[in-house]
Sequence to fold (281 residues):
Amino acid sequence: MTSETPTRHTPENVTSNRPAPGAILEPAGSHRFDGKVALVTGSSRGIGASIAVELARCGAAVAIHGRDTKALDVVAARIHAAGGHVTTVTGDVTSSSDLEAIRESVEETLGPIDILVANAGGNRTPPAPLEQIPEDGWRATINENLLATFLTLKCFLPGMKQRGSGSIVTIASAAARRADARTPIAYAAAKAGIVALTQNVAAQAGPDGIRANCITPETILTEHNRERIPVALQEDLAQTHPLRRLGTPEDVAHAAVFLVSDDAEWITGLVLDVSGGAIMA
Ligand SMILES: NC(=O)c1ccc[n+]([C@@H]2O[C@H](COP(=O)([O-])OP(=O)(O)OC[C@H]3O[C@@H](n4cnc5c(N)ncnc54)[C@H](OP(=O)(O)O)[C@@H]3O)[C@@H](O)[C@H]2O)c1
Fold:
């Protein structure tokens, strides 16, 4: 790392990859992120795995991350099989020392990170009336989501600032977008914190050439949710969405790829509901 003054991006010195008017656009995919390095936390399965696969499909060298090495091997094999460039890192995102080790490992193997998707998280407390929520469950959920996202951004922002560029996507949840008596409150509060965290980082780091956006998915049919949610309930839930289906990990991946790409170069601080119309904020 250098101690150079960070580049201040002004309309004059921003170089745009926008095509000239009338230019023939390249099809999506393949070479969009050639030369870029991406880290997707929590990409050993679920939404994170889909985002990692999609970024690799579009040319990024991708660091996949989680704690389950067998699951990481499966995702790495998928990316290799598609001709993508991948490395694997492990560690707990609620630990700043683990995150530092992850950063060092990715930088050594692939180079500095251009694209950061802070996806790792999940709910650690079942829905319950507030007075029945155990304090340890509350702390675990806040740590797993809000603390983890804070520590992840804290670890990677300084390098992005020094380089004067970077694109960040955080993953919150539809639970943060509207109140519902069946929502796990700690999870909703943690994810609402991620929304505020992301928008404030966007406001602080925009002058350093860094964009930060947040995706708030409704129920996504990950492997885990397919097993956990009975099929009849999946069908009932689908009917509550104007688009009459639940989301897929790929729905979120496509949104993430757009947000970190140059197509979104003037979009920052956005909260993007990927919800089949269930949330219209
Ligand atoms: N699925 C949904 O319906 C839905 C809806 C809205 C928002 N979200 C959010 O989307 C994100 C991904 O959800 P998902 O359903 O795809 O989750 P998932 O299938 O349960 O996978 C979670 C991923 O995060 C990793 N992870 C979790 N805690 C971690 C920790 N402390 N340290 C390191 N890695 C950790 C897991 O790693 P290992 O398993 O390898 O340890 C795994 O790779 C989460 O932030 C979740 O809250 C999900």
Remarks:
- Strands lie at 37-40, 61-66, 85-90, 115-118, 166-171, 210-217, 271-274.
- The radius of gyration is 19 Å.
- The chain has one domain: 37-220+249-274.
- Residues 42-48, 66-68, 71, 92-94, 119-122, 144, 148, 171, 173, 217, 219-220, 222, 224-225 surround NAP (CB under 6 Å).
